[in-house]
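Supplementary notes for students who missed Thursday's class. We covered one full example, reproduced here. Read the sequence, then the structure, then the short commentary at the end.
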Amino acid sequence: MRFSYKEVVLELAQIGNVLLLSGSDDSLKSFIETKSTFMVDSVNEWRSYLLKNGAVVVRDKKKVPTGYNMTVKHPMAQL
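Structure (token representation):
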């Protein structure tokens, strides 16, 4: 699957469980700290679980071309 994420000026491609991002240095800047991307059945359920377990929301849930996404910082990354 390949698609444009025009809101942030990126091109994305999904190959199996791998998500590839392509864009200018400026477009990629806010995603450069992302270490992993997970596909889940329910963003709402995972949001609740992660917040209860110490994660911090970096970019809250929002509509994207493939459904919804959000960015969180893992609790261990904050040590």
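Commentary. The two ends are 36 Å apart (CA to CA). The first strand starts at residue 2 and ends at 5. If anything here is unclear, bring it to office hours.
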